[in-house]
Automatic annotation (TrEMBL):
Keywords of the record: Amino-acid biosynthesis, Arginine biosynthesis, Cytoplasm, DNA-binding, Repressor, Transcription, Transcription regulation
A GO-annotated cellular component: cytoplasm
Gene that specifies this protein: argR
Purpose: Regulates arginine biosynthesis genes.
Originating species: Candidatus Fimimonas gallinarum
Pathway this chain belongs to: Amino-acid biosynthesis; L-arginine biosynthesis [regulation]
Residues in Arginine repressor DNA-binding domain copies: 1-64
Family designation: Belongs to the ArgR family.
The protein, known as: Arginine repressor
Length: 149
C-alpha cells in the first residue's frame, strides 16, 4: 500500500483511539493490513508532524500538532483533498462523501478545524454527517470545507 494510504491510516488510528507508543501504532497498522517497520512509522510520525500530548488522565498519546491548533498540516490537507468525493447540504445537515474507509480521518480533520455552529460530527466508512443548527449554518460549513479543497 502507498505511503499516502499508510499515513492516512495513521491519522485515522490516532483519531479513533489513544496510541502511546510507536510499537502500538505499528501493531495497529499491521492489524489493518499494512506491513510496516518501526523505522517507517517513525518517519511517518515526523512527516505528519505528530507530537505526544498529555490527556485528561495524565497519559501521553500521539496527536497531530497542527490539528490541535485548529489548522491542518499540508499532509492533512492532502488527505482531505484526496479523500472527499462530494459535499452536499440537506436542511441543517452537511453530508460529506469520501473514498472508502476515509470518513473517520476526514471527520477528525473537520472537527479539528473548530468550525462554528457544528453541533456534532458522525462518520461511518465513507460518509461524514455534520449537524448544524440551521440551513444557513450548514451552507457556511459546506462552503468552508469546499474552500479547503
Amino acid at each position: 500500500m502507498s505511503r499516502s494510504a499508510r499515513q492516512s491510516k495513521i491519522l485515522d488510528i490516532i483519531f479513533q483511539r489513544n496510541v502511546e507508543t510507536q510499537d502500538e501504532l505499528v501493531e495497529a497498522l499491521r492489524n489493518d493490513g499494512f506491513e510496516v517497520t518501526q523505522a517507517t512509522v517513525s518517519r511517518d510520525i515526523k512527516e505528519l508532524g505528530l507530537v505526544k500530548t498529555q490527556d485528561a488522565n495524565g497519559r501521553y498519546r500521539y496527536s497531530a500538532k497542527n490539528m490541535l491548533e485548529g489548522v491542518l498540516s499540508t499532509k492533512q490537507m492532502t488527505v482531505l483533498r484526496e479523500a472527499v468525493v462530494s459535499i452536499v447540504t440537506a436542511e441543517n445537515l452537511v453530508v460529506v462523501k469520501t473514498i472508502a474507509d476515509s470518513a473517520s480521518v476526514v471527520s477528525g480533520a473537520i472537527q479539528q478545524l473548530s468550525l462554528s455552529n457544528v453541533l456534532g460530527v458522525l462518520a461511518d466508512k465513507n460518509t461524514v454527517l455534520i449537524v448544524s443548527p440551521t440551513r444557513g449554518d450548514a451552507n457556511r460549513i459546506a462552503d468552508r470545507i469546499h474552500a479547503l479543497m
